[in-house]
Give the backbone structure.
Amino acid sequence: MLLAYIFLILLAHPFCVIPTNTTTSNDNKNIVILAGQSNMSGRGGVVNNIFDWYIPPECQSNSSILRLTKGLSWEVAKEPIHQDIDYYAVCGIGPGMSFANSILKNDPNIGVIGLVPCAIGSTNISLWSQDSFYYNQMVNRTRIALQGGGTLRALLWYQGESDTLNLEDANLYKSRLEKFFTDAQNDLGAPSLPIIQVALATTLGPYMKEIRNAQLGIHLPNVKTVDANGLKVGPDYVHLSTQAEAQLGQMLAQAFLEFGSYTIHNSLEVQKKE
């Protein structure tokens, strides 16, 4: 238990990059970060803390879709892909697998897609500020993912429900979110990294309008917004249903494809050339 705790602290340290023996080394790997809170990690199909294990066709495993595990190795991705990352809760279907399958369907020659799950339920935007535990964990997991070769392609972000609880948090949300996006791009060595954020479909508090206005009002370069409003919600009225998560993944894929032929070499390769 003590060793596991020390490992988590090291992973969250901003300068810690732990070598890993990956099961796959592929220069064509397309690295995509999944971050935010519970609707990104996925609660589709979870009722009363029990996952029904229904995996829709859009979310089925594919040998060309990998995920970086908590142990920092690559494996063929399968739902629920966040279970060992967002381990405080029971995870279900999220948008990640549907996103990846949709990309492969639209671009069969893209190569392997490497998902880097980082989302944690019940986190507000302050917990993702630069140098925070979850922020550093996301950055370091991404750096480790790139060590095996590949290209950092996008950050998918779905968060904000926790910031609807407090008016001060809601009023500060836009500036905090913009800073998170620019900090992430810069710290990952990818100032033009495509970011696709999801505008809220549900709320935990009375300030959903303020959060949605902040999300929809962001017009940073290389940041697109997908609106989840209107997607089917599960019985807890907070989390998206299984089918809604699958649909959201397809919406995120469409936004990703609209970025066109974006590419950035991973920082390790850039440093070698310099």
Observations:
- Residues 1-25, 262-274 have pLDDT under 50 and may be disordered.
- The first strand starts at residue 30 and ends at 36.
